Amino acid sequence: MGAAWSALEKWRDCFAGQRISPGTSPREKGKRSPLALRCADPLQSLAEGLETLASGGAVALLDPALPLARGAEVDATLAHAAAREPGVCSIATGGSSGEWRLARHRVETFWAAAKGFAQRFPHLKEHWSPLPVFHVSGWMPVWRAMACGGEVVPADYRQWLNSHFPRRPAEGAVLSLVPTQIHRLMEVPAAVEFLRSFACILVGGAAISDSQRARARTLEIPLAPSYGMTETAGAISVLTPASFLSGTGGCGQPLPHIHTDLQPETGRLLLQSPSLFDGYLTAQGFAGREDGPWPTTDRASLEDPNSLHILGRIDRMITCGGEKVAPARIESILRKIPCVEDVVAFGLSDPDWGEVVAVALEVSDFQTFRNAWQSISAKEWSPVERPRFWWITDQLPRNSLGKIQLSALLNERSRFTPEP
Q1: Phi, psi for 349 (deg, rounded to 5)
Q2: Across the strands, what pairs with 127?
Q3: Are residues 330 and 250 part of one domain?
Q4: Which domain holds residue 342?
Q5: How many domains does the chain have?
Q6: Is 266 exposed, middle or buried (0-12, 13-18, 19+ CB in 10 A)?
C-alpha cells in the first residue's frame, strides 16, 4: 500500500451537504440494505461503506476476526435497528461481560468531527493510516481527508519496520498511529527518518507514556497526542506537533466542535458536541444516549488553558480495606523508573481486603527494574497503595490498536507473583 486514494469528491459533496436521503448515490437509486462490513480490505471497505451511507443505507464496521455466529447476531440486530433511520453507521466499542456493543453514529456526527479537525488543521491534506477500518481511528482519516479537501493513503506499517517505504509523504501529510506502533518504529533508524517527514503524527487509541514522549522529542518526531473515543467519532482534542516538541504535556486544546466541562464532585470529563454518538446497539437492541452533556469514564483537568490533561478512568478505582485507590497514581509512580515502557494497575479480589493492588509492567530491562523499584520511597505510596501482586514482562497482551487487554491480564492470575 501507499498509493493515495483521491476518489472522494462524490462522497464529499454528498456528505458536506448532508444529502443522505435515499437516491443520492451516484451509482444506485433507492435505500440500500444494511451492510455489515467485515473489514479485511481497507479500500474496499471504505468504498462500500461510504457508498452505502450516501445512498441512505446503514453500515456496521466489524472486525474480520469476529466469529461467524456472533457476526450473525450483530447482522440481525443491525438490520432491525437500521430500518428506523437512514444513514447510520455502527462501530464496535468496549462492552461489559465480554458482550459486543456498537456505538451508533450518523453521517452528521462523522462530518462534525471531521470539520472540527479541518478547522484546526486545514493545511493537512494527505491523510495516511495503517489502522484497521473497523476501529474509529481507521475509519475517521477518510472523513478528515474529505473535510480538508485532500486524499487518504491506506498503509501497512509492518513494512516500515523492515525499512520498506512505498514513497515519501507529501507536504502537509498527517499520519495516524497508536503508541505501540510509535514505540516499535522508533527502534528502526530508517523509520525514524520516515516519521520525521510527516507534518503531523496523530497518536491516539491509548495513552502515550512519558518515556515514549521523551524519546520522540529527542528524535524530533512531530507527534500530536490526542484524546478521543468511538463515541465522539475520534479525536476531540489534539496537541499540535510544535507544542509537543516544545515540551507541552497533555492532549492539547479541545477541537472547535467540542465543549468540555467537569463534574464538580468527581472531576469526570463531560462532553457536548454534534459529533457525539446516538446510543448503543447490543444484542438487546438500541439504547439511546440521554440528552445533555455526555459523561465519559475519565477524570480530567482543565486547569491548563493550553492542553487537556486526562488523569485516569473513574471506573477503575480500587477499593482496598474500604479505602479508595486510584490506579493512575500507582502507574505514575512506577513510570518514574526509566526502563518501564508501560504499566497498568488494577484490583484483584482478596478475601481479607476486598481488593488489593496488582500491577502488570512492560519493561526493557528486568534486572534494572528489580534493582530500581525498591528505591521507591515508602512515602510515595500508602500501605493500601503498595502493589501486592506483580507481573513483569517484555510484552503485555494488547489488541489491534495497541491497548493493553485488561481482560487477558485478569485471566492470567497465576502469572502474578507477590514480589517483582
Answers
A1: -65, 145
A2: 152, 174
A3: no
A4: 317-415
A5: 2
A6: exposed
How far is residue 350 CA from its own chain's centroid? 32
What are the C-alpha distances in Å from 129 to residues 2, 92, 217, 243? 9, 19, 22, 22
Identify whether residues 338 and 304 lie together within a single domain. Answer: no
pLDDT band at 16 (very low <50, low <70, confident <90, very high): low
Nearest to 310 by CA among 397, 180, 234, 208: 208
- pTM for the predicted model, two decimal places: 0.78
Residue 28 pLDDT class (50, 70, 90 cuts): very low
Give yes or no for a contact between 236 and 255, defined as CB atoms under 8 angstroms apart. yes
Estimate to the nearest angstrom the gap between the alpha carbon of 254 and the chain centroid: 16
Return the CATH number at 269.
Answer: 3.40.50.12780
Residue with cell 436521503: 21
- 331 near 318, Cβ under 8 Å? no
Give per-residue pLDDT as tens, 94-148.
644 446 788 999 999 999 999 999 999 999 999 999 998 888 999 999 999 999 9
Between β-strands 200-203 and 173-177, what pairing exists: parallel, antiparallel or unpaired? parallel
Cα-based distances in Å from 125 to 6, 138, 200, 223: 11, 16, 11, 17
CA R_g for the chain: 22
Shared domain for 289 and 328, answered yes or no, is no
Instruction: Return the CATH number at 395.
Output: 3.30.300.30
Instruction: For residue 298, give the C-alpha cell.
Output: 475519565
